[in-house]
């Protein structure tokens, strides 16, 4: 299944030269090119809909006024175009022929592919790679890139991880609000199954200190965090170099972590970690 999925994505990217699209591509213009006859914004319960019509397809987007709502709306628009592009390369997937709804639930192979196509459209490979490489794929560039491409922080981070030349894994953590809680992992993403972000419930709080430190900071914080290496089984996941940066307020505050499993741990990193652990 993974094979067909990858082929369908590659086929769409190549057939429609998505790699070479400009930054902030005009989705309305693209939609016309791909056979959409009209785009409407309405108060609907799903995020977006693609409806066959007499003269092509109609896309209906959920009405939204907030900046984050508009970001989501743009992603949903690109996602619906994904369904059209898949259809035109002959992908049948597991869909019915009727209207498509973009929902949080009912996530299947075709929906996942459409999210990937949306990322390819909104953050085109050539432009995005050049922009991210300019600052050596640093996590400190994440919010700037998200603003530049009109994409959400998590979607932009996934795109960075997908294109970065060195092995890197991302994890989004909800930091503990009190001493009695643990930090909780909300989502993780990597392109290699060799590495995995471990669950906090089996780790001592001290080992996750970087997450707490980033949660209380405005900058990107660097340090070490444990990451599972599936090819080197051990009772306790080893520490790897990591960068962490927090965004959002109060209960919506999240910490984005980039783990670099193949970078060397420096003496500095270990000294700082040891000193902190001893003083806590
Ligand atoms: Zn969909």
Please describe what this structure looks like:
With 280 residues, this protein is an alpha+beta fold. The chain folds into 2 domains: 121 residues, Arc Repressor Mutant, subunit A (Orthogonal Bundle), CATH 1.10.10; 114 residues, Beta-Lactamase. Strands 6-5-11-10-8 form a 5-stranded antiparallel sheet, sandwiched between helices. The protein is elongated. The model has no long low-confidence stretch (mean pLDDT 90). The protein binds zinc ion (ZN). The site of zinc ion has 6 residues, from helix 3, strand 4 and helix 4. The site of zinc ion (ZN) has 6 residues, from helix 3, strand 4 and helix 4.
Structurally, the number of domains stands at: 2
Total strand count, please?
Answer: 11
- List SSEs in N-to-C order: HHEEEHEHHHHEEEHEEEEH
Please state how the strands of the largest beta sheet are arranged side by side: 6-5-11-10-8
Q: How would a crystallographer describe the biggest sheet?
A: 5 strands, antiparallel
Mean pLDDT value:
90
Question: How much beta, percentage-wise?
Answer: 15-25%
Large-scale geometry: elongated
Integer-rounded radius of gyration = 21 Å
Bound molecules: zinc ion
The CATH topology annotation of the largest domain reads as Arc Repressor Mutant, subunit A
Class from helix and strand fractions: alpha+beta
- Count of individual helical segments: 9
